[in-house]
């Protein structure tokens, strides 16, 4: 144990996923690209929980991020050989199911990694109003307990994205729950890592400065020290860059004030200091933390209804009159409870391209029932093809409509949530 | 003079439920005017400034949080995205492009900062 200082060897924590659908090859690239102690991956956005919920309705054994299983099939031997621990929230709505699936994958390859899972985040049993999914955001101490007990792989449900970094740092340095400054430092490192390549030049308004834009952007790494300070970097030879600006970009993302509230600590964003420490190395220091909120945040998804849309192409003169006519034709045919129209910019006269002379009129319908946005909508639009404004065409025929979720945050007492570690040896531990 | 806000200001934007989040900060481009640019940006960005810069937000509740240590501000635009990413009928339902739109807008920038 290194204690609360920035001297001594840091723990090197990488990231290979910022969402469910991120670059599949990133796990292998991160394992092969250079030294790491822990490799993390975030697979859960608010809406992902609903996608996983629909999977689980079809097959109760599912409900986890299936791409993570494919990555483990490809990389398990490599990770074990290199001694890199894998920590991810790919368990989604079914961490136990994912752990069972990983055991299958491992034994088929003749491997026997220690696999732990963390759950207790699923609070559907609290019956929050209208909730299809309801998951409390857990902190990093469950992951830490699993790692300290020797897990090679830890899969969780809904922990905060930053907990994937906080947990391994807690396990490594032995921080206790009131080491607020150190925890806050690790939260900042975790927040920088959680969106993958968004820390290394992805979605970055300074993209013109990126070296060799043809090379895929590398995924980020945090070298976390015993006091919670860190250096953000990436493997040598990977694409993109790590600068004060690329790190700032990620720090500015998805935050809602100068206080970043989490289950383990409240992080004071106005205390973060960033410093350039050579090529692709940015030091993060000075972060202060204080006690976390009493209650835990819960991600609730409810079924909002069903929706569908169509885009009509309008070209040439009298654009607004064309839009008004087709709208007057279509509206009486629609039974959906909500109909929204949006007309794109009216093109300038005398364009020398057809596209330049055109704009889009988008009609979106929403309703509690799938029927009102399904064939009732698509047929009404298609039937106008030869019977409406001159030049009528659509970017694509309307489909059958899709259900949509509405996300909201709720807050519950900590006592309502049993943050539970299922250790690799079968032991069960509840984390306060 | 009139110039695009993005001349030396970076941005990143995104969604949190029905709210949009917009970070604006001064680029570390080696300019000797960095400190003066930060002071200017921190003084410039108020809720009313955002409503003028991005007219689609004119009627919405807006909060601005100064982060001088990061050389910028965090702006939260409430309710821009309606009921959240899956439900929104907005053209950019996750506000991914909002920051780049902000950077393209012309504002009055003191000559000595350019």
Describe the structure.
The complex is a heterodimer of chains A (432) and B (114). Chain A has helices at 26-32, 46-58, 66-82, 95-108, 141-148, 163-173, 180-193, 244-251, 319-330, 370-373, 375-382, and strands spanning 11-15, 38-41, 85-88, 115-119, 131-136, 153-156, 220-224, 230-234, 259-261, 266-268, 273-276, 282-285, 288-290, 295-315, 338-343, 358-367, 393-394, 402-413, 419-422, 428-431. Chain A is of the alpha+beta class and 432 residues long. In chain A, strands 11-12-8-7-1-2-3-6-4-19-20 form an eleven-stranded mixed beta sheet, sandwiched between helices. In chain A, strands 5, 14, 15, 16, 17 and 18 form a six-stranded antiparallel beta sheet that branches. Chain A has a three-stranded antiparallel beta sheet with strand order 9-10-13, with helices on one face. In chain A, helix 6 (163-173) crosses helix 7 (180-193). In chain A, 51% of the residues are buried. Chain B is α+β, with helices and mostly antiparallel strands. Chain B is elongated. In chain B, the strands form two sheets. Chain B has a four-stranded antiparallel beta sheet with strand order 2-3-5-4. Chain B has a two-stranded antiparallel ribbon with strand order 1-6. The longest helix of chain B is centred in the middle third of the chain and has 11 residues, at 34-44. Chain B has three helices and six strands, in the order βββααββαβ.
Strand content of chain B: 25-35%
* Biggest beta-sheet profile of chain A: 11 strands, mixed
The run of helices and strands of chain B is: EEEHHEEHE
Flag low-confidence runs of chain A: none
Uncertain regions spanning at least 5 consecutive residues of chain B: none
Helix content of chain B: 10-25%
Report, as a whole number of angstroms, the end-to-end distance of chain A: 22 Å
Strand order within the widest beta sheet of chain A: 11-12-8-7-1-2-3-6-4-19-20
Averaged pLDDT of chain B, please? 93
Largest interface, counted by CB within 8 Å of the partner chain's CB = A-B, 43 and 36 residues
Radius of gyration of chain A, in Å, reads: 25 Å
General shape of chain A: globular
Number of DSSP strand runs of chain A: 20
Rg of chain B (C-alpha, Å): 14 Å
**Count the helices of chain A. How many?**
11
Going by helix content, strand content and strand pairing, the class of chain A is alpha+beta
**What class would the helix/strand composition of chain B place it in?**
alpha+beta
Helical content band of chain A? 25-40%
The largest sheet of chain B, given as strand count, sense and whether it forms a barrel, is: 4 strands, antiparallel
In quaternary terms, these chains amount to heterodimer
User: Which term fits the overall shape of chain B?
Assistant: elongated
